[in-house]
Specification:
Blueprint (H helix, E strand, L loop, with lengths): L22 E10 L4 H19 L3 E9 L2 E10 L5 E10 L3 E10 L32 H8 L2 E10 L11 H14 L4 E6 L9 H10 L8 H12 L3 E9 L2 E3 L5 E13 L5 E13 L15 H4 L2 H22 L3 E9 L2 E4 L12 E7 L4 E2 L6 E3 L2 E12 L4 E5 L11 E4 L2
Parallel strand pairs: 6-7, 6-8
Antiparallel strand pairs: 1-5, 2-3, 4-5, 8-10, 9-10, 10-11, 12-13, 12-19, 13-18, 14-17, 14-19, 15-16, 17-18
Length: 421
């Protein structure tokens, strides 16, 4: 039978208007003991955390993908007005068929949802072992996907014609820094200033620069450098750019025009692949008296943005922010393994990225060497192998700790943790 995907829906009834504060609750979770006691323990802990969160007026957002052979992917996301902290296991026990866990945890909210339990439907092709399939809120997977904050580094812009920017010293760095500042204002991103670095251009852009400068830039492949660059900075995406045209032209009666033509490249930090590229082309215009840009105006200052040229740069930067945010927030949320101790895994995304205790993500093993094209000239990315699932057990500000579902699978630094809708 062909693979069929089933998305099951759950509506959690939440009371509105209740003051929100943290309180300590106790909750129990249970799971059938199947082939693995460790897996039953993990599922029971997951169930206990879910029950505790529901007592705190939380929303549970999960996605389960099933086939006739059972569950093949299961992500879970807990959303609440606050965070779950201080999870501790009070008791663990078993009977002939189930594993039980009782926990104590601090949860947000004062509204009790005792007695309200998920209403589930069994997916066709489930194995009938009595395990209720995971469920999600309507559009919950996309909601969870958008709530994880992506880490983005913005590198220095290339200047394709230096003669056009003689009156704008340092524009390649100033543009990158201002773009990073504006991206950091969006609560869906964590932006990093990497304007001291310059990524190589690739493809047609290299040829274009060769015609202008008469020499090739560094010959290294841009995608491979982007992946190495992202790993060293601990980010998920790298943004690079090129200033194609900032030329000035004079017209009749004192009219002056200045082109603003920029390219933006967005790279995936794991594979180095180009996620998107955009070109914006605007024109700043000055008529009559005054200056297109005051000569004593520092770049990206209030006086700069008050000039005709600065106002157009301001609009252009806002447009670039919108494009980049749309590009990266539609990509799967990804983090790297930074340390592994048996089934316990440390990875480089934490509270700042909106991770929560109890979130369930997928783990992938990544090859050490990139996959090259047929000619062996260009790196195409890194091969990934699905490994197991991971439940988040601890969350710090910049990293988290999770436990692998499999008793035998082990991850290494550089492997990948991912949330997939």
């Amino acid at each position: 039978m062909s693979k069929t995907l089933y998305y099951l829906l759950l509506l959690c009834l939440l009371w509105a208007g209740t003051p929100v504060f943290a309180r300590t609750v106790e909750a129990e979770g249970a799971a059938p003991i199947g082939a693995s006691v460790a897996q039953a323990k993990r599922l029971a802990l997951q169930d206990a955390i879910r029950q505790a969160l529901m007592q705190g007026a939380a929303q549970v957002s999960t996605t389960t993908v099933t086939t006739a052979n059972g569950v093949v992917a299961d992500n879970m996301r807990f959303s609440a007005r606050g965070r779950v902290t201080g999870v501790s296991v009070l008791r663990e026990w078993t009977d002939e068929s189930h594993y039980y866990v009782r926990i104590r945890a601090n949860v947000p909210g004062a509204t009790s949802l005792d007695g309200v339990r998920p209403t589930t439907a069994r997916a066709a092709g489930s194995n009938g072992d009595g395990v209720a399939p995971a469920v999600r809120l309507a559009n919950g997977d996309q909601d969870a996907l958008s709530h994880y904050r992506r880490k983005v580094a913005v590198s220095q812009f290339h200047v394709l014609d230096r003669t056009q920017v003689a009156d704008l010293p340092g524009i390649e760095v100033a543009l990158a820094q201002e773009l990073e500042r504006r991206l950091s204002l969006d609560d869906r991103l964590l932006a990093l200033d990497a304007s001291q670095y310059l990524l190589p251009l690739s493809g047609a852009d290299v040829l274009s620069q060769r015609r202008i400068l008469g020499a090739l830039p560094p010959a290294r492949d841009a995608q491979q450098v982007a992946a190495e660059f992202a790993e060293s900075l601990g980010v998920q995406f790298v943004v690079s750019g090129a200033i194609r045209d900032l030329g000035v032209s004079n017209r009749f009666l004192g009219q002056q025009l200045r082109n603003i033509e920029l390219d933006i490249f967005v790279y995936d930090g794991i594979s180095g692949a180009e996620v998107a590229r955009h070109r914006v082309n605007e024109t700043a215009e000055k008529s009559g008296y005054g200056e297109l840009m005051p000569r004593d105006a520092g770049l990206m200052t209030e006086k700069f943005f008050a000039s005709p040229f600065g106002r157009q740069v301001d609009k252009t930067l806002d447009k670039l922010v919108d494009l980049i945010v749309a590009d990266v927030t539609t990509q799967p949320f990804t983090a790297r393994v930074i340390r592994s101790e048996g089934r316990q895994v440390y990875f480089d995304a934490g509270g700042r990225a909106n991770l929560r205790v109890g979130d369930v993500l997928n783990a992938y093993k990544v090859t050490d060497a990139p996959v090259a094209d047929l000619a062996g000239q260009h790196a195409l990315g890194y091969a990934e192998t699905p490994a197991t699932q991971l439940i988040v057990t601890q969350v710090q500000r910049q990293f988290s700790v999770g436990e692998l579902a499999s008793e035998t699978t082990r991850l290494a630094p550089g492997d990948v943790i991912r949330f997939e809708p």
